[in-house]
Amino acid sequence: SGDIAIRIARDGTWYHEGDPIRRESLRNLFASILRREEDGEYYLVTPAEKWRIVVELHPLIVTDVDLVNDELQLTLNTGKVVTAGNEYPLFLEPSVDNVAAVKLWHGLSAIFSRSAWYRLVGFANEEGIISTGSISLQLA
């Protein structure tokens, strides 16, 4: 246990020792054991080991958003789909011009990609409010 030379860049690219991790299956495996702990640090955690990594902004990316049965369905860069709401609330990220992000499991979060952000904005009313069955978010 200790530190490992893995970094997740602001754009969601994973790096190991400075080189991008190109294998999607390997990145998804690492993402499945990723945790953010109470100290604010990110760790890859297995039953036998715990390695701290560097996350520049958010560890995951929302790559798509769709309105299904009056609920926002978010697709992450790992392929996982979650429904925004009480369990996975949306918030605005002030360090990136208030682009939407979502809180996830194990202290993780995902920021919206540019295309997902534009799709989300398209669901807002004239006042810049997104209101679905379980969420209400003021974008402006």
Pattern of helices and strands: EEEHEEEEEEEEEHEE
**Termini, distance in Å?**
44 Å
Which value, in Å, is the CA radius of gyration? 16 Å
Main sheet? 6 strands, mixed
Give the amount of beta strand, in percent. 35-45%
Query: Low-confidence segments, ≥5 residues, pLDDT <50?
Result: none
Number of strands: 14
Oligomeric description of these chains: single chain
Helix proportion = 10-25%
- What strand line-up does the widest sheet have? 3-2-1-6-5-4
Shape descriptor reads: elongated
Question: On the 0-100 scale, what is the average pLDDT?
Answer: 94
Report the total helices: 2
Structural class: mainly beta
Topology:
Elements: E1 2-8, E2 14-16, E3 19-20, H1 24-32, E4 34-36, E5 42-45, E6 50-55, E7 60-68, E8 71-76, E9 81-83, E10 90-93, E11 99-103, E12 109-112, H2 114-122, E13 129-131, E14 136-138
Question: How would you briefly describe this protein structure?
Answer:
This protein has helices at residues 24-32, 114-122; strands at 2-8, 14-16, 19-20, 34-36, 42-45, 50-55, 60-68, 71-76, 81-83, 90-93, 99-103, 109-112, 129-131, 136-138. By secondary structure, it is mainly beta.
What are its keywords?
single chain, 140 residues, mainly beta, 6-stranded mixed β-sheet, 14 strands, elongated
